[in-house]
Amino acid sequence: MLLTLSTTHHPATDLGYLLHKNPHRPQSFELSFGHAHVFYPEATEARTTVALLLEVDPVGLVRERRGPSGEGGVLAQYVNDRPYVASSFLSVALARTFRNAMSGSSKERPDLARQPLPLVARLSVLPCRGGEPFLRKLFEPLGYTVTATRHALDETVPDWGHSRYFTVTLEAHTRLSDLLTHLYVLIPVLDDDKHYWVGDEEVEKLLRHGEGWLAAHPERDIITRRYLRHRRSLAREALERLSGDEAPEPEEGTQARNQEEAALESRLSLNEQRLQAVVAVLKESGATRVVDLGCGEGKLLRALLKERQFTDILGMDVSFRSLEIARDRLDLDRMPELQRRRIQLLHGSLMYRDARLAGYEAASVIEVIEHLDPPRLAAFERVLFESARPNVVALTTPNAEYNVRFESLPAGTFRHRDHRFEWTRAEFESWAQGICERFGYSVRFLPVGPLDPDVGAPTQMAVFAR
């Protein structure tokens, strides 16, 4: 079984520091079921690749009574796919050989260990019970670009059709520790099997390695059940604890941060100018069906309802509480029937493909992307520009260059404590051009707010069209 990890981060050889493995010295590790070998097929400053080659001894497994059992009897213990495919054996090897890297620690490069990097993982043979659609459902919400090549059951007998085995490549801009952790958890999930007894300690492993991503994953239920080998009591305990972890931040905390940002921008009436600018773009597009992604408490929705042009308005947000506030402020329960038919509110995440977003001619995304971590930003891009694919998208984000004009904002800090980044105009334009190249859109840029000759406007808007 072969797994390779590659990066083009400069210098790419820093991958050795993150993995605690010298690129110039192959290493081998003895495991209870065989041996793991770590070596570097290439190691240059431009590109470095590390390989984890796993040798599983099927005879040794039977002798240790760890081999597969059940249907097939004794023969299946010796003749099986375990030495050749990614499975829980590979997860154990990852934890054994790359333990420090999985934890995100690096004595020589601590800052780099916390930094998202361009990474590519390639699994030579991966069993996928559920096929390619399930494979994509697991990895794409985490921000990965998935390439899968399915293998024939027997290349010499085409009529037998395809097997459940794939060669899989995963690409993402993410932390190495996150990539290793995702592989550790999801490989046994795809295989839907484990080579060892699953007990209470596996719940702790799942919660530890799933911290920060599993609770919000759309397939968390099936991930949990498969990881715990369908043991109902363990899966129920894990899901209950995940539900607790997923509990949103208290509303007062979110409101306090939002109020801080609003107070900072209030002198400019910036929020009102953003809403007016977006409404103008949407009207100009000629669209009648419009979706506001990350609609929050419904301020744009109220403005859209005033325009008769918009006959079908959808507001979507990940926060139940925000949608409840939007419902109250829009007075939906007492709205005249004809008006009420024009608008609906939808609970959903911008991270996951949603068939309910299809068919809308235009979309607005106001001050949303800066709240997303880079890996989640990549998933959002595919949800909006590849899956929903509206004709027009009006998207706004802060202009980091303008922050020096806010006297009360300390240098080097963001306008909102939940912002993951704030882009300069050049950075925003570069990102937007990348969207156009990947998804077939064109883009134009509009300033929002007072235009400063040196640092531009406080808000920048991109209008995408196809």
Characteristic terms for this protein:
about 475 residues; alpha/beta; c-terminal autoproteolytic domain of nucleoporin nup98; Rossmann fold; 2 domains; seven-stranded antiparallel β-sheet; seven-stranded mixed β-sheet; 14 strands; about 40% helix; globular; S-adenosyl-L-methionine; metal-binding; Small RNA 2'-O-methyltransferase; Hen1_N_sf
**What is the count of helical runs?**
18
CATH homologous superfamily grouping of the largest domain? Vaccinia Virus protein VP39
Structure class: alpha/beta
Termini separation: 44 Å
User: Would you report the number of β strands?
Assistant: 14
Structure description:
With 466 residues, the protein is α/β, with parallel strands linked by helices. The chain folds into two domains: 2-196, Hen1, N-terminal domain (c-terminal autoproteolytic domain of nucleoporin nup98, 2-Layer Sandwich); 251-465, Rossmann fold. Helices cover 38% and strands 22% of the residues. The chain is built from 18 helices and 14 strands. It has helices at 15-19, 58-63, 73-78, 88-97, 99-103, 110-113, 131-139, 176-191, 200-209, 220-227, 232-245, 251-265, 270-285, 299-305, 320-330, 337-340, 374-388, 425-439; strands spanning 2-7, 27-31, 34-43, 48-56, 117-127, 145-152, 162-174, 289-293, 312-317, 343-347, 362-366, 392-398, 442-448, 459-465. The strands form two sheets. Strands 2-3-4-1-5-7-6 form a seven-stranded antiparallel sheet. A seven-stranded mixed sheet has the order 10-9-8-11-12-14-13, with helices on both faces.
